[in-house]
Amino acid sequence: MSEGLTWTVYDADTMTQAEIYGEVLCQLGEQHPEIVALSADMANSTKIGRFGKKFPERFFNVGIAEQNLFGVAAGMAKSGLTPVVSTMAAFTAMRACEQVRTDICYQNLNCKIIATHGGSSFGQAGTTHHCTEDLSIMRSFANMTVIVPADGIETANAVRAAIDWPGPVYIRIGRGFEPPFYESEDYGFAIGKSVELHPGTDVTLICCGIAVLQAVEAAKFLQANDDLSVRVINMHTIKPIDEAAILSAVTDTRRLITFEDHNVHGGLGSAVADVIAASGKGCAFEKVGIPDCFCEVGYPEDLYSHYKLDTDGIVEKVREVMGRDFEEDDDWEDEV
Amino acid sequence: MPITEQEIRFLEEKAKKIRKDIIDITGWSGGAHIGGAMSMVEMLTLLYFKVARLDPSQPEAPERDRIVVSKGHGGVGYAAMLADKGYFEFDLLKDFNKFKSPFGMHLDSAKVRGVDVSTGSLGHGLPMAVGLALGARVQKQDWKTFCILGDGECNEGSVWEAAMAAGHFKTTNLITFVDRNRLMIDGQTEEVMSLEPFADKWRAFGFDVREVDGHSFGQLTESIDAALAATEKPVIVIANTIKGKGVDFMENDVRWHYGGLDTDLIARAKDSVDRMAGHD
């Protein structure tokens, strides 16, 4: 899909997730004349405006009108184009919820959605601009693929993969100031296939988005200080979820914790729980995220700390789960 | 695209046939949105039998004109039209609304041959039609998009978001109709949530407005000709219609927004359609 392009490592220290995807879209636009881009007065905030500057005839700003944004995108997809739509997650998943569901998913259209300011990443803005419900909402739409990249580099991979992936795709990113994790795009990103970032046999941390980097740091710390072997999985695709990786983790480590910047109901944790429950295998399990409340106001790093999504919080949660009394025999037959 | 007297007579007979088909499907289905289906029969008949570039043997042809029935509850009329046009066998509509039928009351483009866009939830069709029109423009295609809105549907905010965009982007390759039958489920549009001054609202959003008798093939054709010639502003045709048109006991009666028909009522309804007079 990227033949002919030179994929350099983005200056991820200074470029935000959104800036990187804006750059990637510009590159993809050269190869794919069918790509058009749309936004709702968020061309600059989301960086999709970069595409608009390069391809003005293929960029449409519909103003502050998100329902129309996704309806227009659906019509464009019906005409044979591949619309890439970007606006804030809150207005994608909630203001235009029905258009995404009925116009795009019901008709299984080739629309790629890049939802910015996901989770509590725009923490200062308050609840109206937080979006800790989108993964739950999007996961429940038939035909929808849901991706939460760990950083800008993975966002680049996700956007490129989404263009080649048939049907609607929801890519959820942050506000843009999330620290980078990956140094290169070349780590084998594939939609629906998770990435093991740290090996471990005592406990598995399944993460997405900003929690990925923090979990890897926590795993290193716990190895060094607690002599714990902590597996970290970057579950960048929430749907379709990598069931094999979850089931291996259940078998190998018997203790699982999920970390996500989302309500603990309905997102990554719930998707993982579904797989565990259906397997009939027992394990210690905890979902960490926003504990079914509207998120506090504050800078994202303070919020991640408050909700145990930073390294310290993750270490604390792992110690808590490791301290639980849990049957660890090898006989699975009595648990099915 | 002038229209001859002979063509008008043909279209009027076709419209009567479609109305009787709608009556049959309503009988088979146990209940359908017959009132609003009847009011848009002339618009659909004119599009499918004179104006739109369509080939039922190639429903996915890229160069075809697109038709978006934004008032998706008109599905019973839309289905009757598509069957008559040859997209599928009319007898398939005996299963309308039934278990696993491709034909629910709001038609699904994935299941029904000839349906360009799935509609049903109101306020969705015009945004998608604007997207289709812009899609044609981006791809430098000359096919047109026709969209039929319900008047009650125009309570939805998303209709006006799309109207703003159509005016802004000057989508003159989009021809929009409003089936102005003045009734919605709960009563008269002007009593439930007033739309007037309706034409002024569309003008304010950047449209050239044509108000016509929505049952007159002559007037509808003139308005479409003006729309096809437009270069600055998209045209909207406010088609003044009668809900339940053609069936005397349904006309302008809000109770026939949705209803079922027994054998006796089917006979009476068809007899009424046979007695319909033409509109100038």
TrEMBL record, chain A:
InterPro entries xref list: PDH/Transketolase, THDP-binding, Transketo_C/PFOR_II, Transketolase-like_Pyr-bd, Transketolase_C
SMART domains per the UniProt record, alphabetical: Transket_pyr
Cofactor(s) essential for the protein: thiamine diphosphate
Record-annotated Transketolase-like pyrimidine-binding domain positions: 15-180
Annotated keywords: Thiamine pyrophosphate
Keyword Repeat on entry: no
Keyword tRNA processing annotated: no
Family named by the database record: Belongs to the transketolase family.
Protein name, entry field: Transketolase
UniProtKB/TrEMBL annotation, chain B:
InterPro entries: THDP-binding, Transketolase_N
Cofactors required: thiamine diphosphate
Transketolase N-terminal domain boundaries: 15-271
Keyword annotations: Thiamine pyrophosphate
Pfam families: Transketolase_N
Family of the protein in this entry: Belongs to the transketolase family.
Protein name (Swiss-Prot/TrEMBL): Transketolase
Organism in which the protein naturally occurs: Desulfosarcina widdelii
